[in-house]
Write a structure and sequence with these properties.
By secondary structure, the chain is of the alpha+beta class. It has 7 helices and 19 strands. A hairpin with a 2-residue loop joins strand 16 and strand 17. Bound molecules: uridine-diphosphate-2(N-acetylglucosaminyl) butyric acid (EPU). The site of uridine-diphosphate-2(N-acetylglucosaminyl) butyric acid has 15 residues, from strand 15 and helix 6.
Protein backbone atom coordinates (compact mmCIF):
# COMPACT_ATOMS: atom_id res chain seq x y z
CA UNK A 1 0.00 0.00 0.00
CA UNK A 2 1.42 3.34 -1.04
CA UNK A 3 1.04 6.56 0.88
CA UNK A 4 0.18 9.01 -1.86
CA UNK A 5 -0.60 12.11 0.17
CA UNK A 6 2.48 14.41 0.39
CA UNK A 7 1.05 16.13 3.50
CA UNK A 8 0.82 12.79 5.28
CA UNK A 9 4.37 11.91 4.21
CA UNK A 10 5.57 15.25 5.63
CA UNK A 11 3.69 14.73 8.91
CA UNK A 12 5.16 11.23 9.25
CA UNK A 13 8.65 12.63 8.61
CA UNK A 14 8.10 15.31 11.27
CA UNK A 15 7.55 12.51 13.80
CA UNK A 16 11.03 11.15 13.05
CA UNK A 17 9.54 8.07 11.38
CA UNK A 18 11.49 6.84 8.37
CA UNK A 19 9.43 6.35 5.20
CA UNK A 20 10.62 3.80 2.62
CA UNK A 21 8.73 3.27 -0.61
CA UNK A 22 7.96 0.05 -2.40
CA UNK A 23 10.02 -2.33 -0.28
CA UNK A 24 10.30 -6.04 -1.08
CA UNK A 25 9.00 -7.74 2.05
CA UNK A 26 10.15 -11.21 1.02
CA UNK A 27 13.59 -10.07 2.18
CA UNK A 28 12.18 -9.26 5.60
CA UNK A 29 10.75 -12.71 6.27
CA UNK A 30 12.51 -15.97 7.09
CA UNK A 31 10.33 -17.76 4.51
CA UNK A 32 11.48 -15.36 1.79
CA UNK A 33 7.86 -14.91 0.72
CA UNK A 34 5.91 -11.69 0.45
CA UNK A 35 5.06 -8.88 -1.96
CA UNK A 36 5.83 -5.18 -1.78
CA UNK A 37 4.63 -2.25 0.27
CA UNK A 38 5.68 1.05 1.80
CA UNK A 39 7.51 0.70 5.09
CA UNK A 40 7.50 3.03 8.08
CA UNK A 41 10.35 2.57 10.54
CA UNK A 42 9.61 3.87 14.02
CA UNK A 43 12.72 5.16 15.77
CA UNK A 44 11.11 6.51 18.95
CA UNK A 45 8.35 4.57 20.69
CA UNK A 46 6.67 7.83 21.76
CA UNK A 47 5.87 8.63 18.11
CA UNK A 48 3.66 5.54 17.71
CA UNK A 49 0.33 6.91 19.06
CA UNK A 50 0.53 9.99 16.83
CA UNK A 51 1.66 7.93 13.82
CA UNK A 52 -1.27 5.52 14.18
CA UNK A 53 -3.66 8.46 14.62
CA UNK A 54 -2.36 10.04 11.39
CA UNK A 55 -2.71 6.78 9.45
CA UNK A 56 -6.23 6.21 10.75
CA UNK A 57 -7.31 9.77 9.99
CA UNK A 58 -6.02 9.34 6.44
CA UNK A 59 -7.62 5.88 6.17
CA UNK A 60 -4.30 4.22 5.41
CA UNK A 61 -4.53 0.55 6.45
CA UNK A 62 -1.41 -0.64 8.26
CA UNK A 63 0.07 -3.79 9.75
CA UNK A 64 2.95 -4.20 12.13
CA UNK A 65 5.79 -6.57 11.19
CA UNK A 66 8.27 -7.83 13.78
CA UNK A 67 11.24 -10.04 12.92
CA UNK A 68 9.31 -11.75 10.11
CA UNK A 69 10.20 -15.26 11.28
CA UNK A 70 6.73 -16.66 12.00
CA UNK A 71 4.63 -15.01 9.35
CA UNK A 72 3.33 -15.75 5.86
CA UNK A 73 2.76 -12.56 3.86
CA UNK A 74 0.68 -12.38 0.67
CA UNK A 75 2.14 -12.04 -2.83
CA UNK A 76 1.91 -8.89 -4.96
CA UNK A 77 1.26 -5.37 -3.69
CA UNK A 78 0.12 -5.63 -0.08
CA UNK A 79 -3.04 -3.74 0.93
CA UNK A 80 -1.33 -2.37 4.05
CA UNK A 81 1.52 0.01 4.83
CA UNK A 82 4.00 -1.81 7.02
CA UNK A 83 5.21 -0.55 10.41
CA UNK A 84 8.46 -1.78 11.96
CA UNK A 85 10.29 -0.79 15.13
CA UNK A 86 13.94 0.24 14.89
CA UNK A 87 16.12 -1.44 17.51
CA UNK A 88 16.82 0.80 20.51
CA UNK A 89 20.34 1.30 21.77
CA UNK A 90 21.05 -0.15 24.28
CA UNK A 91 18.53 -2.94 23.73
CA UNK A 92 19.01 -4.66 27.10
CA UNK A 93 19.38 -3.10 30.55
CA UNK A 94 19.92 -5.08 33.73
CA UNK A 95 18.68 -4.45 37.29
CA UNK A 96 19.41 -7.36 39.62
CA UNK A 97 17.56 -10.40 38.27
CA UNK A 98 15.55 -8.25 35.87
CA UNK A 99 16.39 -7.60 32.23
CA UNK A 100 14.59 -4.74 30.51
CA UNK A 101 14.64 -5.73 26.86
CA UNK A 102 13.68 -3.76 23.77
CA UNK A 103 11.09 -5.74 21.79
CA UNK A 104 12.97 -5.20 18.51
CA UNK A 105 16.00 -6.99 20.00
CA UNK A 106 16.97 -10.36 18.53
CA UNK A 107 15.74 -13.15 20.83
CA UNK A 108 18.83 -15.38 20.54
CA UNK A 109 21.20 -12.47 21.20
CA UNK A 110 19.11 -11.53 24.23
CA UNK A 111 19.43 -15.05 25.65
CA UNK A 112 23.23 -14.87 25.39
CA UNK A 113 23.40 -11.29 26.71
CA UNK A 114 21.43 -12.40 29.80
CA UNK A 115 23.66 -15.49 30.14
CA UNK A 116 26.71 -13.23 30.37
CA UNK A 117 25.05 -11.57 33.38
CA UNK A 118 24.60 -15.04 34.94
CA UNK A 119 20.86 -14.90 34.23
CA UNK A 120 19.46 -18.15 32.84
CA UNK A 121 16.16 -19.93 32.26
CA UNK A 122 15.79 -19.11 28.58
CA UNK A 123 18.35 -21.60 27.22
CA UNK A 124 15.63 -23.51 25.33
CA UNK A 125 14.80 -20.39 23.31
CA UNK A 126 18.31 -19.99 21.93
CA UNK A 127 17.61 -21.12 18.35
CA UNK A 128 14.17 -19.56 18.02
CA UNK A 129 14.52 -16.94 15.27
CA UNK A 130 12.96 -13.49 15.47
CA UNK A 131 12.59 -10.64 17.88
CA UNK A 132 11.75 -10.56 21.58
CA UNK A 133 8.46 -8.85 20.67
CA UNK A 134 7.53 -11.66 18.29
CA UNK A 135 8.39 -14.24 20.93
CA UNK A 136 6.16 -12.40 23.40
CA UNK A 137 3.20 -12.17 21.05
CA UNK A 138 3.20 -15.93 20.40
CA UNK A 139 4.58 -16.99 23.78
CA UNK A 140 7.41 -18.69 21.88
CA UNK A 141 8.62 -21.90 23.41
CA UNK A 142 11.01 -24.77 22.92
CA UNK A 143 12.55 -27.54 24.99
CA UNK A 144 10.26 -26.99 27.96
CA UNK A 145 10.78 -23.21 28.13
CA UNK A 146 8.19 -20.56 27.27
CA UNK A 147 9.11 -16.88 27.32
CA UNK A 148 5.86 -16.02 29.14
CA UNK A 149 7.13 -17.67 32.34
CA UNK A 150 9.69 -14.89 32.77
CA UNK A 151 7.60 -11.87 31.78
CA UNK A 152 6.80 -9.42 34.59
CA UNK A 153 5.97 -6.15 32.78
CA UNK A 154 5.35 -5.19 29.18
CA UNK A 155 5.29 -1.72 27.70
CA UNK A 156 2.79 -1.97 24.87
CA UNK A 157 1.02 0.24 22.36
CA UNK A 158 -2.64 -0.73 22.83
CA UNK A 159 -4.69 -0.80 19.66
CA UNK A 160 -7.92 -0.31 21.64
CA UNK A 161 -6.88 2.92 23.38
CA UNK A 162 -4.23 4.22 20.96
CA UNK A 163 -1.97 4.75 23.98
CA UNK A 164 1.26 3.30 25.34
CA UNK A 165 0.50 1.37 28.54
CA UNK A 166 2.33 -0.85 31.01
CA UNK A 167 0.82 -4.28 31.65
CA UNK A 168 1.97 -6.25 34.68
CA UNK A 169 1.84 -9.86 35.87
CA UNK A 170 -1.66 -11.30 35.72
CA UNK A 171 -2.80 -8.59 33.28
CA UNK A 172 -1.20 -10.72 30.55
CA UNK A 173 -2.25 -14.29 29.94
CA UNK A 174 0.27 -16.70 28.37
CA UNK A 175 -0.85 -20.05 26.97
CA UNK A 176 0.64 -22.52 24.49
CA UNK A 177 1.60 -20.30 21.51
CA UNK A 178 -1.11 -17.81 22.45
CA UNK A 179 -1.30 -14.63 24.53
CA UNK A 180 -3.99 -12.19 25.59
CA UNK A 181 -2.49 -9.32 23.57
CA UNK A 182 -4.94 -7.97 20.97
CA UNK A 183 -3.93 -8.45 17.31
CA UNK A 184 -3.24 -4.71 16.86
CA UNK A 185 -1.16 -4.33 20.05
CA UNK A 186 2.52 -3.55 19.51
CA UNK A 187 4.93 -4.69 22.21
CA UNK A 188 7.67 -2.14 22.87
CA UNK A 189 9.76 -3.40 25.77
CA UNK A 190 9.56 -6.07 28.42
CA UNK A 191 10.90 -6.76 31.89
CA UNK A 192 11.97 -10.37 32.26
CA UNK A 193 12.81 -11.76 35.68
CA UNK A 194 15.36 -14.53 35.30
CA UNK A 195 16.89 -17.02 37.74
CA UNK A 196 20.57 -16.58 38.69
CA UNK A 197 22.76 -19.29 37.16
CA UNK A 198 26.49 -19.52 36.48
CA UNK A 199 27.39 -18.57 32.89
CA UNK A 200 29.12 -21.92 32.26
CA UNK A 201 25.98 -23.83 33.25
CA UNK A 202 23.79 -21.70 30.99
CA UNK A 203 26.24 -22.20 28.10
CA UNK A 204 26.04 -25.95 28.57
CA UNK A 205 22.22 -25.79 28.35
CA UNK A 206 22.46 -23.60 25.24
CA UNK A 207 24.82 -26.10 23.56
CA UNK A 208 22.50 -29.03 24.25
CA UNK A 209 19.48 -27.19 22.81
CA UNK A 210 21.46 -26.10 19.75
CA UNK A 211 22.51 -29.69 19.08
CA UNK A 212 18.96 -31.03 19.45
CA UNK A 213 17.68 -28.38 17.09
CA UNK A 214 20.40 -28.98 14.50
CA UNK A 215 19.64 -32.70 14.57
CA UNK A 216 15.89 -32.36 14.05
CA UNK A 217 15.13 -29.10 12.23
CA UNK A 218 16.03 -27.74 8.74
CA UNK A 219 17.98 -24.74 10.01
CA UNK A 220 19.76 -23.95 6.76
CA UNK A 221 16.56 -23.61 4.75
CA UNK A 222 14.02 -20.82 4.50
CA UNK A 223 11.11 -21.58 6.82
CA UNK A 224 8.80 -20.07 9.42
CA UNK A 225 9.51 -22.79 11.97
CA UNK A 226 6.59 -25.09 12.67
CA UNK A 227 3.62 -24.44 10.41
CA UNK A 228 0.96 -25.98 12.69
CA UNK A 229 0.45 -25.93 16.45
CA UNK A 230 0.61 -29.33 18.06
CA UNK A 231 -2.90 -30.58 18.84
CA UNK A 232 -3.50 -31.31 22.54
CA UNK A 233 -1.48 -34.40 23.46
CA UNK A 234 -0.29 -34.93 19.87
CA UNK A 235 2.46 -34.00 17.46
CA UNK A 236 1.69 -32.35 14.12
CA UNK A 237 5.17 -33.25 12.83
CA UNK A 238 4.76 -36.93 13.65
CA UNK A 239 1.33 -37.14 12.00
CA UNK A 240 2.48 -35.44 8.78
CA UNK A 241 5.55 -37.70 8.75
CA UNK A 242 3.42 -40.82 9.26
CA UNK A 243 1.37 -39.82 6.22
CA UNK A 244 4.59 -40.01 4.18
CA UNK A 245 4.44 -36.35 3.29
CA UNK A 246 8.10 -35.38 3.79
CA UNK A 247 9.22 -33.86 0.48
CA UNK A 248 5.61 -33.32 -0.64
CA UNK A 249 5.40 -29.98 -2.45
CA UNK A 250 3.29 -27.41 -4.21
CA UNK A 251 5.55 -25.37 -6.50
CA UNK A 252 8.62 -24.55 -4.44
CA UNK A 253 6.76 -24.84 -1.11
CA UNK A 254 7.85 -28.18 0.36
CA UNK A 255 7.38 -30.25 3.50
CA UNK A 256 10.89 -30.49 4.97
CA UNK A 257 12.68 -33.85 4.69
CA UNK A 258 14.06 -33.27 8.16
CA UNK A 259 11.02 -32.18 10.19
CA UNK A 260 7.55 -32.66 8.71
CA UNK A 261 6.01 -29.66 10.53
CA UNK A 262 8.49 -27.31 8.86
CA UNK A 263 7.44 -26.22 5.38
CA UNK A 264 10.36 -24.72 3.47
CA UNK A 265 10.71 -22.35 0.57
CA UNK A 266 12.93 -24.49 -1.64
CA UNK A 267 13.43 -21.83 -4.32
CA UNK A 268 10.90 -19.27 -5.45
CA UNK A 269 7.80 -20.35 -3.53
CA UNK A 270 4.88 -17.93 -3.52
CA UNK A 271 2.36 -17.36 -0.77
CA UNK A 272 -0.19 -19.12 -2.99
CA UNK A 273 2.07 -22.22 -3.14
CA UNK A 274 2.56 -22.24 0.62
CA UNK A 275 -1.15 -21.74 1.35
CA UNK A 276 -2.05 -24.57 -1.05
CA UNK A 277 0.46 -26.87 0.66
CA UNK A 278 -0.89 -25.93 4.11
CA UNK A 279 -4.48 -26.63 2.99
CA UNK A 280 -3.52 -29.93 1.36
CA UNK A 281 -1.61 -31.22 4.40
CA UNK A 282 -4.36 -30.07 6.77
CA UNK A 283 -6.98 -31.95 4.71
CA UNK A 284 -4.91 -35.12 4.62
CA UNK A 285 -4.33 -35.01 8.40
CA UNK A 286 -8.04 -34.43 8.92
CA UNK A 287 -9.00 -37.34 6.66
CA UNK A 288 -6.65 -39.76 8.37
CA UNK A 289 -6.75 -38.63 12.02
CA UNK A 290 -9.95 -36.59 12.27
CA UNK A 291 -7.90 -33.69 13.70
CA UNK A 292 -8.15 -30.14 12.39
CA UNK A 293 -4.64 -28.68 12.66
CA UNK A 294 -4.43 -25.01 13.57
CA UNK A 295 -1.76 -22.80 11.99
CA UNK A 296 1.08 -21.72 14.22
CA UNK A 297 2.47 -19.44 11.54
CA UNK A 298 0.60 -16.12 11.32
CA UNK A 299 -1.03 -15.87 7.91
CA UNK A 300 -1.76 -12.30 6.87
CA UNK A 301 -5.21 -12.17 5.28
CA UNK A 302 -7.41 -9.27 4.32
CA UNK A 303 -10.10 -8.94 6.93
N1 LIG B 1 8.55 -36.31 14.73
C1 LIG B 1 8.48 -37.22 13.71
N2 LIG B 1 8.72 -36.79 12.44
C2 LIG B 1 9.00 -35.50 12.15
C3 LIG B 1 9.05 -34.57 13.20
C4 LIG B 1 8.82 -34.99 14.50
O1 LIG B 1 8.23 -38.38 13.93
O2 LIG B 1 9.17 -35.19 10.99
C5 LIG B 1 8.35 -36.80 16.11
C6 LIG B 1 9.65 -36.69 16.92
O3 LIG B 1 10.44 -37.83 16.76
C7 LIG B 1 9.12 -36.53 18.32
C8 LIG B 1 7.80 -35.78 18.14
O4 LIG B 1 7.44 -35.94 16.78
O5 LIG B 1 8.83 -37.79 18.88
C9 LIG B 1 7.93 -34.30 18.48
O6 LIG B 1 8.92 -33.73 17.64
P1 LIG B 1 9.91 -32.55 18.14
O7 LIG B 1 10.61 -32.98 19.37
O8 LIG B 1 10.71 -32.12 16.98
O9 LIG B 1 8.97 -31.42 18.62
P2 LIG B 1 7.71 -30.75 17.95
O10 LIG B 1 6.55 -30.99 18.86
O11 LIG B 1 7.53 -31.15 16.53
C10 LIG B 1 7.95 -28.50 19.21
C11 LIG B 1 7.72 -27.09 18.83
C12 LIG B 1 8.97 -26.52 18.19
C13 LIG B 1 10.14 -26.65 19.15
C14 LIG B 1 10.32 -28.13 19.50
C15 LIG B 1 11.39 -28.35 20.53
C16 LIG B 1 5.40 -26.70 18.24
C17 LIG B 1 4.41 -26.61 17.12
N3 LIG B 1 6.64 -27.02 17.87
O12 LIG B 1 8.11 -29.23 18.00
O13 LIG B 1 8.74 -25.15 17.97
O14 LIG B 1 11.32 -26.15 18.57
O15 LIG B 1 9.08 -28.63 20.05
O16 LIG B 1 10.94 -28.02 21.80
O17 LIG B 1 5.03 -26.51 19.39
C18 LIG B 1 7.93 -23.53 16.42
O18 LIG B 1 7.16 -23.18 17.28
O19 LIG B 1 7.96 -22.96 15.30
C19 LIG B 1 8.80 -24.66 16.67
C20 LIG B 1 9.60 -25.14 15.74
Amino acid sequence: MHINDPKLVAAIGALGVEYKQNISLAEKTSLGIGGTSDLLIIRKHESLPELVRLLKDSQVPYRFLGGGSNVLLPDGELPWTILQLARQDPDVRFEGNSAWVDCAADLGRTVTRCAKQNLGGMEGLIGVPGTVGGALRMNAGAYGTQIGSYVREVLVFRAATGKIETLRGAEINFEYRHTSFAPGDIMLSVRLELPSKPYSEILQGIRICNEKRRASQPLNQKSAGCIFKNPPGGSAGRMIDELGLKGHSVGDARVSDRHANFFVNAGHATAADMLALIADVRNRVHERYGIELEEEVIVWKES
